[in-house]
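pinned: reference chain
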Amino acid sequence: MAKIIIERARRAPSAVIDRIAAFVRFRLIGGEIDKGLLFKTVMYVILINVAFIYMKPILYMVTTMVKDARNILDPTVIWVPKSIFLGHIREAMRLLDYTKSLAISVSLAGAVSVLQVFSCAVAGYAFARLDFPFKRFWMAMLLFTFIMPPQVIILPTIMMFKNFGWLDTVLPMVIPAIFGHGLKGALFVIIYRSFYSTLPKELDEAARMDGAGAFRLFFRVMFPLSKSAIVVVVLFSFVWNWNDFYLPSIFMFTAENVPLSITLARMAAEMARAAGAGEMSVYEESIKMAASFLIVFPLLIVYFFAQRWFIEGVERTGLVE
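pinned: its structure tokens
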């Protein structure tokens, strides 16, 4: 009996060490590599650093636009101002003619996104579910329009719209969207084609047994099922048309009523001319930051309310792949 007690006493330290090692291995490192505390800590550090890279410009923009003259001239004030001044936002709204330009941007981006939702859905459905002559050829042409730089065809496009009398209007951006073209239209067709290709063929067969044709099958069955793809196309189209400067600067370069992207460029050019003439202002950077925030803020609101549907839509359409 005494020998047994002595032997257990000798083994006790090693048992305790084994338990501690097992705890460290399964709790700290993890039985599987992606379940340990160490792995999660490293991942959180990486994600926080990546998030800061994206958030830093926005944080700098917000903190700069609320600085008054004392905070701007104080070298110790970098991120957190000692007082809040909202006069730069009012000045930026005046220089941007914000109310009118905002209405034009919302109308233009909204109209193009709605039109592309329907036209690109029809084209994507045709490429995914229907058989028609030279289908592969037209699909190759679609991919060609996607990879071809717009600068290649911009000159004949300007001449064509000039003959139509559409320059200095929004028609060169809106009318192509009716036919599934427009900004990034080919990509939206590919998104719809990818989504409709994943739907079972039994839906087509059941609808055709009930006497539904191609148009009725699309509008009554296929299009209502593509809500996830619709969300992705609407948000992508709206954001890209909202931020687009190239096409409005080409087709509306002398127009009076222009979207926010053009008014921001005009405001920056006017400030640069004033600086070149010797009219320096300590508020120049703060006003620019305020104007940039006014343009970005509506998109932040849209994404804040639509982020859940957007993420689900990206996953279901296979865009992540």
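why pinned: The mean pLDDT is 82. The CA atoms of residues 232 and 313 lie 6 Å apart.
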